[in-house]
C-alpha cells in the first residue's frame, strides 16, 4: 500500500459554501473570482497545492461545496488525484455518519424519557449549547468517554484483527478508520452519551452507534472504487485528447500506440495540448449539511473534456456501463482487451464494477454522459448518495 503524500501538488480550485465564505471574510481573507469548467463564475480559493488534513477539516465543517482540478496530463499525478478523491469520499461519509448518529441519539429512548420528564428543557435538533461549555463537559468526562469508545470499538477491532483476508497494513488502516469515524462525531453527541451513561436505554444507544459504525465501515470501501474509476476516466480522456492532437501534429504519420508509450512523442503532444490550454477538468460537488433531506450525502464527480465525436463517446459509455460483467472478473476483462483498448477503455468497463460495489453497500449510484449545449464539451457525471 502506497504512503499518502503530506501535500497534494495539484492545481486546485475550491468553491466555498455560504458558511465558508463568511468564515474567510471574517478572517479578512480575500477570495478569488474564477471560471469553472462549465463556464460558471464562482468565488473561492485557488491553490497550487493543498494539505489533505486542512482540506478535510474544511469539508467536515461544511465550508466547501465544490473542488475542481484541471490538467492536460494525469499520469504523473495519479497518486495525488486518487488520494484527493478518497479524501473527499471519506469526508462525506464522516459527515453522514455524524448526522445519522445524531438523529439516532435524538430518537433514542434515553432522550424521549428525558424530554417527557423535562418539558421545559427538551433536547432536540434545535437545542443549542455553547461550544466552550460542551468542550469543557466532554473534557471533564474524558475517562468515561474513553471507556465508552472502547465499548464501541472493541468488537469492531476484534472483527478486523481476525479478518484473514486483510494484510497487517490493511488491518491498521481499518482500525484507524473506525477511530476516525468516532472522532468526527460532534461534541453534542458525546455530551449526551456521557450524560446518560448507565441509564435505561443507554445500552441500546451504544448498540446503535456500534452497528452503524460497521455499516459505514463497509460503505467506506467505495472510496477506493471511486478513486480508481475517476483515474481511469481521466486517463481515458487524456489518451483520447493525445491521439486527437497527434493526428493534427503528425498528419497520420505516427502510430497511435507510440503517442501513448514513446516518451519523446508523448512529451511533444502534451506540450502542444498545454500550449493550447486543452485541458481535462475533474470536479467533486459535495452536498451541503444544510441541504434538503436526501441530498446532504450526495457526491457528484464530473469529468469535462472536449470530445469532437460526442455520439460515439456516449454510445461507448452506455454500452460498457450496462455490460453484464457478472461472469467475469475485472482482471479477465483486462486480459481480453487489446493493448490499445486496455489503455483507453478499461475505465468504462469499470463502471459496472463500481455500480455493483455501490449496490452491495446500499449506495445509490448513477452514471451519465451528456454534452453542454452549444459546445464540444462532453460531460461524464457519477452521482453517489452516500
Keywords, please?
386 residues; alpha+beta; 8-stranded antiparallel β-sheet; 56% helix; 15% strand
Please describe what this structure looks like.
It is a single chain. This protein has 386 residues and is an alpha+beta fold. The protein has helices at 18-26, 52-60, 78-106, 109-117, 131-140, 142-162, 168-183, 187-195, 202-219, 222-250, 256-261, 263-275, 310-321, 330-336, 339-344, 346-360, and strands spanning 12-16, 32-35, 41-47, 64-71, 280-286, 298-306, 364-371, 377-385. The chain has an 8-stranded antiparallel beta sheet with strand order 2-3-1-4-5-6-8-7. The protein is elongated and about 80 Å long. It starts with 11 loop residues before the first strand and ends with a strand. The model is unreliable at 327-331 and 337-344 (pLDDT under 50).
Describe what is shown at a glance:
The chain has 386 residues and is of the alpha+beta class. It is 56% helix and 15% strand.
Amino acid at each position: 500500500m502506497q504512503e499518502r503524500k503530506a501535500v497534494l501538488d495539484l492545481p486546485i480550485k475550491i468553491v466555498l459554501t455560504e458558511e465558508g465564505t463568511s468564515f474567510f471574510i471574517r478572517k479578512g481573507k480575500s477570495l478569488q473570482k474564477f471560471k469553472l469548467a462549465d463556464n460558471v463564475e464562482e468565488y473561492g480559493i485557488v491553490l497550487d497545492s493543498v494539505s489533505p488534513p486542512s482540506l478535510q477539516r474544511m469539508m467536515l465543517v461544511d465550508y466547501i461545496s465544490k473542488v475542481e482540478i484541471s490538467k492536460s496530463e494525469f499520469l504523473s499525478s495519479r497518486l495525488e488525484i486518487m488520494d484527493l478523491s478518497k479524501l473527499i469520499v471519506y469526508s462525506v461519509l464522516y459527515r453522514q455518519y455524524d448526522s445519522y448518529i445524531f438523529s439516532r441519539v435524538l430518537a433514542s429512548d434515553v432522550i424521549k424519557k428525558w424530554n417527557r420528564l423535562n418539558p421545559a428543557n427538551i433536547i432536540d435538533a434545535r437545542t443549542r449549547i455553547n461550544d466552550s461549555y460542551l468542550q469543557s463537559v466532554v473534557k471533564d468526562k474524558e475517562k468515561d468517554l474513553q471507556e465508552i469508545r472502547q465499548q464501541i470499538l472493541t468488537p469492531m477491532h476484534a472483527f478486523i484483527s481476525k479478518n484473514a483476508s486483510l494484510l497487517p497494513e490493511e488491518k491498521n488502516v481499518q482500525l484507524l478508520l473506525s477511530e476516525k469515524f468516532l472522532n468526527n462525531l460532534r461534541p453534542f453527541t458525546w455530551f449526551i452519551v456521557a450524560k446518560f451513561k448507565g441509564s435505561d436505554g443507554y445500552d441500546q444507544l451504544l448498540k446503535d452507534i456500534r452497528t452503524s459504525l460497521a455499516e459505514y465501515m463497509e460503505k467506506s470501501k467505495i472510496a477506493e472504487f471511486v478513486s480508481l474509476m475517476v483515474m481511469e476516466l481521466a486517463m481515458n480522456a487524456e489518451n483520447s485528447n493525445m491521439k486527437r492532437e497527434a493526428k493534427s501534429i503528425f498528419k497520420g504519420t505516427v502510430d497511435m500506440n507510440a503517442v501513448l508509450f514513446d516518451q519523446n512523442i508523448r512529451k511533444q503532444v502534451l506540450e502542444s495540448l498545454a500550449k493550447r490550454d486543452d485541458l481535462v477538468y475533474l470536479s467533486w460537488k459535495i452536498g451541503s449539511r444544510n441541504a434538503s433531506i436526501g441530498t446532504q450525502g450526495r457526491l457528484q464527480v464530473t469529468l469535462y473534456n472536449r470530445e469532437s465525436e460526442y455520439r460515439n463517446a456516449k454510445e461507448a459509455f452506455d454500452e460498457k456501463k450496462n455490460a453484464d460483467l457478472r461472469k467475469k472478473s475485472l482482471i479477465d476483462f483486462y486480459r481480453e482487451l487489446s493493448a490499445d483498448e486496455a489503455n483507453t477503455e478499461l475505465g468504462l468497463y469499470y463502471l459496472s464494477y463500481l455500480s455493483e460495489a455501490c449496490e452491495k453497500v446500499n449506495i445509490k449510484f448513477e452514471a451519465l454522459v451528456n454534452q453542454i449545449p452549444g459546445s464540444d464539451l462532453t460531460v461524464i457525471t457519477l452521482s453517489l448518495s452516500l
